[in-house]
Amino acid sequence: MSFLELKDIHKSYYVNKEPFPVLKGISLKFERGEFVSILGESGGGKSTLMNIIGGLDRNYEGDVLLDGKSMHAANDRELDNYRRQTIGFVFQSFNLISHLTLLDNVMVSLEMTNLSHNEQVKRATGLLEQVGLSEHIHKYPNQISGGQKQRVAIARALASDPDVIIADEPTGALDSQNTQEILELMDGIAESGKLVICVTHSEAVAEHGTRIVHMEDGKINEDRELKPAFPVEGKQLSTQTKHLSFRSTLKMSLKHMQYNTKRNLLIIFGGSIGIFSVILMLALGNGVKAYMNDQITSQINPTTIQVAKKTNQESLKAVEMTKADRARIDKVSGVTNVVPGSYVANGVQVAYQGKTQKIFQFQTWNKTEKVRDIKLGHKPGTNEILITKTTAKKLSKDYKSLVGKTLNFSMTTVDDNNQPVGLQRNLKVSGIINSGTDAVSYGTLQNMYTEKHVTLRPNFAAVSTKDVQTTKSVQNKIKALKTNGKTAFTITGVGAILDSLNTYISLAFYVLAGIAAISLLVSAIMIIVVLYISVSERTKEIGVLRALGVRRSDIRNLFVSEAFFIGLFSAILGVILAWLVELLINHFASGAIHFAIIQMTGGYVIFGLLISVIISLLAALAPSHQAAKLDPIESLAVE
Ligand SMILES: Nc1ncnc2c1ncn2[C@@H]1O[C@H](COP(=O)(O)OP(=O)(O)OP(=O)(O)O)[C@@H](O)[C@H]1O
């Protein structure tokens, strides 16, 4: 049984569905220790035969037997194994991977062996030394000569210690001195007990081997032994191989990114803009919401809300918050206190030293107003009035001096027969409040009404809650109360706008996030385009890797890992940029509004990282699939 046997190989190419026969029945037997030169006219099918022997092509008739085992029946995985374990390729155009150093080019093959990392490095360095390149191992392929490149290719072909070296015109691109040196190297390989099959045009090169096979018209027309094959001692034990680990694909894609540093930095920068804007928009939305809440809760008491009747009617009776209504609200859990209040929107005025000022917002003092907002004086007691800074300034230039002075307060209301009634009383200014409304105590207003025999009908209730946390649930519970199936109460006052304001802010926030999502989409499209370009640029590399025995799935992983890194680095840069902008804007914002308006959270950072990586991986799906699908022979043929 021969070591390697070709049995009646037929192969046709199909051009426009027309068969074009190239190999027309090739049968050959090869043994270890042979250095076989395959000669023949150009276009005679030598490379086609090499691709079949090398396990790159499986569309042929006949069979290739390795130690008697048929390779024709091998599945994808077994063919990958065969190329990795048994075959070492040397190409006319060297086919080194341009973004890897010479050492790393040789290491690609070694990373698919069971040797430890140190043993791999030692072996790669040893092989490069053997081919006379020990001083150049950290150079890139574009930094060495053609002859040197072919030596690296030979070192790479030998790296996984294969049994067969297939060389397709290995000296085609070299001068005579380099040709001689390469032939001597190949001689040495055959001498070490391996089978060397070398395609050549040159008779001189062919004469160097142990045997010449001549092809013509798709058949063997001469098979001549020049000298006996080199002796092979015992059974050869070649290094065991395995598929490329995920770690190795990660490392390779990092090296590729590193080689194209400038371009990749630009891509990462482009990608980071999407993540940057998403995080910044989220943080801005968060900050604005917090700022609004802070502004509103600084003006009102967060544990007291104003509740009014929900009705379409306007009569004082219809809007009255009756005792029964107040009792009903009092029963809501979380409520600690309910007091009646009266709000008057027009017809109220005050007069001081001949000056009259209309008050547009007037109400009885209640807990929704904050005592700490009273900058001068105190809250209104009996026959006292608390005026706003705005009202005070209209009445007197030296408005602060008004505290303790007496004003004439007047208002009009209607009695139960809807007849207008004028109310009037001299009231002492108890204090001046910065914001909020002008106010008297409920008792004072009630006295004024009683004096004129009119009933004061409260039109709201100030409802106090246990604490800030319960306010929201109390609000919801009150809003849920029904009278005859209809909503009974509504929340009024500044507290009521808090809810709707938050809704508007959330809405604006989603719009902003939507805009940011568009930039994210643009980043994703950019990554897709970049990866497609990368696949087409690296087609040859993919062919080389496949020839070295790298599986389709590893090729896919290579591009997926690159996308993963682009996503990860873009996200990291995006987060850093967002953080810097946060610092900058907050620096100015704290000067202007005393509030950090951009509020980035750990959650947003994690969200940004995840979304960036996920989008990049999704973007990589199609390009990486395309890369994995590439046919190794076609890829190697790309110029
Ligand atoms: N993918 C293909 N589709 C169609 N025809 C092809 C294809 N590849 C090769 N051929 C044809 O098959 C024939 C054999 O090609 P091959 O490359 O094997 O020849 P070769 O002996 O290696 O030639 P050379 O010495 O010039 O390298 C040629 O005529 C070539 O045009």
From TrEMBL:
Residues covered by the ABC transporter domain: 4-242
Keyword vocabulary terms for this entry: ATP-binding, Cell inner membrane, Cell membrane, Membrane, Nucleotide-binding, Transmembrane, Transmembrane helix, Transport
Gene3D superfamilies, alphabetized: P-loop containing nucleotide triphosphate hydrolases
Signal peptide span: none
Alphabetized SUPFAM superfamilies for the sequence: P-loop containing nucleoside triphosphate hydrolases
Source organism superkingdom: Bacteria
Keyword Transmembrane among record annotations: yes
Pfam families the record matches: ABC_tran, FtsX, MacB_PCD
Residues annotated as transmembrane: 265-285, 507-534, 555-581, 593-621
Localization of this protein: Cell inner membrane
Any one Gene Ontology molecular-function term assigned to this protein's record: ATP binding
UniProt membrane topology term: Multi-pass membrane protein
Family per similarity comment: Belongs to the ABC transporter superfamily. Macrolide exporter (TC 3.A.1.122) family.
UniProt name for this protein: ABC transporter ATP-binding protein
